[in-house]
User: What shape does this take?
Amino acid sequence: MRHAYTVEQVRSAESELMAKLPDGTLMQRAATGLAVAIGNFLGGTYGARVVLLIGSGDNGGDALYAGARLARRGAHVTAILLSPKAHEPGIAALRSAGGRSVTSAGDISGEIYDDIVSELAGADVVVDGIVGIGGRPGLRPDALAAVRVAEQYGVPIVAVDTPSGVDVDSGETPEPHVNAALTVTFGTHKICHLVDPAASACGPVHLVDIGLDLPPALVQSLQAADVRALYPVPHGESDKYSRGVVGLMVGSTEYPGAAVIATAGALGGPVGMVRYVGPDAVAAAVREAHPEVVGAGRVQAWTIGSGLGEELDVPRIRELLDADEPVVLDADGLKALDDSGDHVDVLATPHAGELARLLGVDRSTVEAERLKHARMAAERYDVTVLLKGATTVIASPDGEVRVNTNATPWLATAGAGDVLAGLCGSLLAAGLTPLDAAALGAYLHASAATLASANGPITATTVAQSLPEATRRLIT
Ligand SMILES: NC(=O)C1=CN([C@@H]2O[C@H](COP(=O)(O)OP(=O)(O)OC[C@H]3O[C@@H](n4cnc5c(N)ncnc54)[C@H](OP(=O)(O)O)[C@@H]3O)[C@@H](O)[C@H]2O)[C@@H](O)CC1
Ligand SMILES: Nc1ncnc2c1ncn2[C@@H]1O[C@H](COP(=O)(O)OP(=O)(O)O)[C@@H](O)[C@H]1O
Ligand SMILES: [K+]
Assistant: This one.
């Protein structure tokens, strides 16, 4: 499991550890890991041109000490000091290792000096030591000008701890920020490393262990080992009923494909049987594509809503929401959600537009503040919310969050959400909690899409068809 913490949690773990260690130990650990990561990123240090952007805090200190190490290994290192308060011992270390520093990137209006432009333009890498966990969102004019030059000349930026300018605790990016080719973080992941849009600004995130000791985090992200541990693999005593039976109330004469595709998603999950409930013509289409599907009867969980269109029967859905069996509520079915009942067994799977409607806000507001709105809906409706998108944010009513970051943009294809809804229903029917079903479903869905996309552009159908192979690769 990958755990992501708030700045306050990180600071308290750091101060506990610092109290036990000689001064400066943690910064040296961070700087050593950073220098190694930059060296690996460059594919060699000797002769490399490295420009450090240095702010006023310890984030700049990390970058300066890492720069000193790189200079000792033959790199040409220049530090651009963006603040008169830049880390003095770090500057001294860089200078004594043969690096140089220049004060400020430009004049007071943010106009960048010509020699700084050529320094940045000729760099092999720019190291963002502007701000880390002590930063506020946004970049000051001289920092912004320097970052823009690096972008303009295509120079990759390695972010120290966090890409400067993002909001570390929410993953929001309300202001200009660094877009990193690599982020090297220390001790643990922070929320901005997992939650979009900030997560996209991090690039790959490399974690350097500095010895922090932290309790389990509220925000977590499943890894392959967690998938293995959670997946309900059948055993010798299993039968089709004990493996779980999922009922699907999806699709309509208007959208018969949604029923066929959601069924494929459910069959690609762990259940022993899939039941379809819907108009005769749609049921016939489902059985033609999937002859193993049966009709109404007892189920352990429902998937309701994908492509329901005019079939939407709000009173019937509310009956099922109030019954004992857990429910995945998708697409049109979300219209049946009300904020009165106890719905802890419900997993709602909106995309940003659907979540915006549920909360009465604009879609763009949800996109910009994904974690906040997923949590808000989970609390208001007392359901687990799986917010779809390039990264998927899952929030449970008790405050636990899971983030899925392994999807491929190829997954942005019609019907992909129907596959996910069917799969999550299958996982609920097999006995997983809504939070685990959502996290595992999102992971498997994304893995199947990645596998399918090896053969070119994918469709919802090919994603569903790849679920068994993607699952096998993960659990064996
Ligand atoms: N603690 C530890 O054990 C370890 C910590 N480590 C490292 O320390 C980092 C945290 O260091 P930190 O606390 O000094 O804060 P940091 O992020 O460098 O700068 C904050 C200062 O910047 C300023 N500022 C704020 N917003 C700004 C903006 N938008 N644009 C420009 N400037 C802005 C503001 O000062 P101001 O200029 O406003 O006076 C503020 O005081 C952490 O991320 C990790 O890299 C590692 O060495 C491992 C051990
Ligand atoms: N850019 C993207 N990168 C990765 N995954 C994406 C991206 N855009 C959408 N997805 C995923 O694709 C699926 C789309 O679902 P949805 O929006 O419900 O589409 P549909 O209603 O057509 O099925 C979701 O699982 C979502 O997380
Ligand atoms: K930074």
Notes: The chain has a mean pLDDT of 96. Residues 2-220 form a domain with the Rossmann fold fold (CATH 3.40.50.10260). The chain has 17 helices and 18 strands.
